[in-house]
Design a protein that fits this description.
180 residues; 2 helices; 6% helix; elongated
Length: 180
């Protein structure tokens, strides 16, 4: 069982987790497939509430599919695949009704408010993940001085990786419009 415990990152903390499924362990090989639920999981400083997912783990990889849960005030769905030898990470997440302030703050951007939806595609490795994000919604930007600027409906795409956020395109309709 020690080899199974080594699959869970040390920094992952589960609150009241349950697993229902199959476990096959024969010598150095194992296969685990079932449903995992928890009250919460905290990993790398981020707390996910009520995660519920189908999981498959063998000697090569872990796959989590049909993930449903809540991050901050936002419900999300997604799937992720991680290779143990390559450390390759592949996955996606979707969320509607995202509070823009919470999303922006997590990216180091201050002053946004409103609601949007976001889709993310993950790649890279666990140590150096790359996330492509597409977001749309409506909101305001609250500057340090002066009245807030209405963003209105927006559509944005960009990468996030290795501590940086990029913007490969944004559409802000209206007389000023804009892009990056």
């Amino acid at each position: 069982w020690k080899s199974l415990r080594n699959l869970i990152p040390n920094e992952a903390n589960f609150a009241t987790a349950s697993y229902r499924g199959m476990v096959e362990y024969t010598g150095p090989t194992f296969d685990l497939a079932g449903q995992l639920k928890a009250i919460s999981v905290t990993w790398k400083g981020q707390r996910f509430v009520s995660p519920n997912l189908a999981v498959h783990i063998d000697n090569q990889s872990v796959a989590a599919t049909g993930i449903r849960g809540k991050w901050k005030a936002t419900n999300f769905t997604g799937s992720i695949l991680y290779g143990f030898k390559s450390h390759a990470l592949t996955g996606f997440a979707n969320s509607d009704k995202v509070p823009l302030a919470e999303l922006a703050n997590s990216l180091g951007v201050k002053g946004l408010s409103g609601l949007g939806s976001a889709k993310a595609i993950f790649s890279g490795t666990a140590d150096h993940p790359v996330v492509q994000v597409a977001a749309n919604g409506a909101g305001h930007w609250h500057r340090d001085t002066g009245a807030p600027i209405e963003i209105g409906n927006f559509h944005s795409r960009g990468p996030r990786g290795r501590g940086t956020v990029g913007c490969s395109g944004v559409v802000l309709p209206g007389p000023a419009g804009g892009g990056c």
